[in-house]
């Protein structure tokens, strides 16, 4: 940022104008922020691209059923066996459930037998019975299902009998309940963690409040803007996008604040006028913050190349949030800092002319330990990280099965109910395989499915305008590997029927298509993102060698983080399966956020190189940025670590992986590996630029006498 612009933003009068303007915008957008959940789309079908077979099948299925129909199964279990009185009570529940709003097609055990439904509704051992019904509340179904589940529990209560709301409806109810109020809890946990870290980092009872206030303002403006984009610009927002946005904005915003405040504190020691100090701080820190935010935004926008709508939507939504956060942090935060004055740093107030403590701190000593043998250090560190990365072989990205979807696992009601159905030989009829095919070839399609393992006998249940609907109930949990394999076999079989134009849909088919689309997105998006980040680094550092080195170190850090995560997920969490999109999400956030710390470091290295040379500049940069970057890394790790408090396994895994990766990048990759490579390569890192090469920069004698002697092995 040009120093004149920086000065105008924080002038004696303009600081008040900036404050009022940002707060007015925050008030307007904040009024829309609370409505963001009302425009979420959490249906799995909405995540799929138009090209997916299950998406096309869903469109054809609209001829036979309302897409908002949701089949729900009530599971009754009694270890000693259900009595005649229990079964009679179950029959009495049918009419009561049918009176609920939007409920239709209630099937009790006796109704199933009377209508000739072949699937049993009471297990052979007499311990389990089930009742099915369909519910349709239109677009309000997701929000209503937790309350509907509560009503069902009240109606179906029987003394001595365990009752579970399961099937597709029960799963939806549990998922909606898990997301309900989650954003508020997550925000509170994240803020508490960040406040604690800022108190320790700043050692001030006051200063922490300004970055937190600005981060919350940025989050409110971003949420309001995203509500308008989702409502009027058809942007896809789901619960997953929103909870990631919460931690991303708080974490990234606090990081930007840490960098700016650290530079402002340096400048306060050099300038008596705080307005002048902030102008210089913004002038020197804003480019690094802008480059950091641009990298994150570019990385997130690369997700638009994803085939999955949920992934493609996550990118622009969070990119908007990060862009808003950057603007708030370089406008509102500087204004508040100069309005408050030096006292906000109390009790460690940076006085004009006082010494800079980073010159002899921990990171200065760390740099001097690396300096004598930098090549040995970076080779040893690289080998160690490669060994750790082998743990990634334990990751299973085939998808999270139903019994691992929640952190509490089997204790979740729908999971326990679905397991009872499978264990006692009953079929979950709420999620059958659905095949739409030409009526003329319907019998051939049914015949082609004969003998496929994992499904019951397929049945033609309806036909209309030359198209037939064929259903085949699964014999295992819809998300079990056996069910996934059954869908693959069904597709192979029905596609082979000439002229049938058969397409396979249903919940399991949707899951399979999501897995396949995620695999494609991993192959396409990751290289695009690496190229985008590389171009940003080349423009920022005006070199080719150093951006290549930084990209390599971040990839190595990502691999090591996956390695540690693979071991933790399997041996600690007992959740070895991950979502198919996990590698891409982890890569996007770890690379985009991990490169931030290298940007903070390397922009300072380049600044110091101009007068002191690459090797001494690297040591000075490490000493001056080490503390703030470490604090920023801990803040970001804590914010993403807050995701581990959520009930969903996906949130636990992505939060843990990013927290591990950020700490690795902050403590080892940036401070040890990158610094060691800089010291070993010297001015060659700026190739093809002539900086510190043609000719090499010779540090001034005064500088050399003030700095401790450093021996660098080349």
TrEMBL record:
Keyword terms, alphabetized: Cell membrane, Membrane, Transmembrane, Transmembrane helix
Its membrane topology is listed as: Multi-pass membrane protein
Q: Which InterPro entries match?
A: MMPL_dom, Mycobact_MmpL, SSD
Primary location group: membrane
> TM spans, by residue?
16-34, 184-202, 209-230, 242-264, 285-306, 318-345, 377-395, 524-541, 548-569, 581-599, 619-644, 650-669
- What PROSITE patterns does the annotation carry? SSD (PS50156)
Which cellular compartments is it found in? Cell membrane
**Pfam families associated with the record:** MMPL (PF03176)
Q: Which residues belong to any copy of the SSD domain?
A: 212-339
Q: Say if the entry is tagged with keyword DNA-binding.
A: no
**Cellular component terms, GO, for this chain's entry?**
plasma membrane
Gene3D superfamilies, A to Z? Multidrug efflux transporter AcrB transmembrane domain (1.20.1640.10)
Q: Which family does it belong to?
A: Belongs to the resistance-nodulation-cell division (RND) (TC 2.A.6) family. MmpL subfamily.
Identification of the protein by name? MMPL family transporter
To which species is this protein native? Answer: Nocardioides agri
